[in-house]
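Q: Here's a chain of 253 amino acids. Please give me its 3D structure as tokens.
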Amino acid sequence: MAGRRVVVFPSSVELGPALAHLVTSRAEKAIVSRGRFTLGLSGGSLVSMLSKELLAMPDLDCSKWVFGFCDERLVSFDDPESTYGLYKSQFFSKVSIPDSGILTIDPSLSVNECAEDYTCKLKKAFPDDDFPVFDLLLLGMGPDGHTCSLFPEHPLLEETKKIVAPISDSPKPPPQRVTMTFPVVNSARSVAFVSTGGSKAAVLKEVLEGREGPALPAARVVPTNGELFWLVDEPAAASLTIPVERLVSGAKL
């Protein structure tokens, strides 16, 4: 692994522009090297933050970007729980992206068929990789330490062969979802967690400073050959005792 950077911002107001710069700088690098930029998205509060900040970037050009989803809820796209649906209304509809640049699930399928269908789409988009190698994955973390739809003590944490796995018993509704597996997450060239708010302070300490017993899912994100960022605000970092970087408004990663 190229190393873990824990970067603390005064608040999410300063974090957002730095995240957008990280995305666009990795995009420029990827397009120069490989002719395209592959970005894996997560839902939750990340949707509005990322959409707002990317749309504020001057000369944003997404024509060579390919978007995937780190996990997705098995609901129709017009359901407020649909991560794709949220990004479509807040971001995709406002920029020029070819249809082939957005890899979505088929919500009309059963959860098992949906996972297989999404696996096929990723294999087609990444034909040369055993596991898809995204340029950047953006991840969130729940108060229980889950990331993607990989939950504590769930059998999917041990999945080593599947690219996309179905889950029918998510402890967080809706119960049916599909999720990237750890082999895919840890194959990425860059991974960035975004975690904000005081409600995340205790679990962030457990994830970053270790805990007794099994590692929480977010702590198992260790890119094999990639870089790992934790972008957090002061309230989320309140309990940390490890060395961190502190960046001020306007700073770039």
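Q: Can you summarize the key feature?
A: The two ends are 18 Å apart (CA to CA).
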